[in-house]
Amino acid sequence: MAEMIEPADVRILEALQTDGRLTNQALAEKVGLSTSPSWRRVRHLEETGVIQGYKAVLDRKAIGLGVLAFIRVKIDSHSAAEAEAFAAEVIGLDEVVACYSIAGDADFLLQVVSPDLDSYADFAMSTLRRLPRIKEMQTTFVLKEIKGFDGFPLRFTGGRP
């Protein structure tokens, strides 16, 4: 089980998930701390891996990636070596923006983007389908994104903001 996060750290995480560009001064004011403790807490959260980095959030469609799909993949073997080999191959594919090892009737769930359906078809048939370990794959296309990932819920951390 993960270590309980202190309430002040929860407030910091909530603020930074909303705006990762906050200055330390603005962050400290927002979470009710002075600048030195705020800075120390952020450094600790970074050093322990709770905060893994800071990135710009891009609009997928605005950068020309109109197709979003999820692909359920079954591989030939369930050995750890085969699963690791498949994962290593998938990591290098630009179209795959996320990959999860899953339980159920498939082994992996891939989140894939492409400019259009023709590009997706080329990727699926010419690149993904040709990977040696794939036994079966099933694609589900996103028609409309209702709620995209916007940060983790922090109410489960044990600390109360």
From TrEMBL:
Q: Biological process GO annotation list?
A: regulation of DNA-templated transcription; response to amino acid
Record InterPro entries: ArsR-like_HTH (IPR011991), AsnC-type_HTH_dom (IPR000485), Dimeric_a/b-barrel (IPR011008), Tscrpt_reg_AsnC-like (IPR019888), Tscrpt_reg_AsnC/Lrp_C (IPR019887), Tscrpt_reg_HTH_AsnC-type_CS (IPR019885), WH-like_DNA-bd_sf (IPR036388), WH_DNA-bd_sf (IPR036390)
Q: Which Pfam families match?
A: AsnC_trans_reg, HTH_24
Q: Which UniProt keywords apply?
A: DNA-binding, Transcription, Transcription regulation
Residues annotated as domain HTH asnC-type:
5-66
The GO terms this record gives for MF are:
sequence-specific DNA binding
The record's Gene Ontology cellular component field reads: cytosol
Q: Any idea what this protein is called?
A: DNA-binding transcriptional regulator, Lrp family
Species of origin: Xaviernesmea oryzae
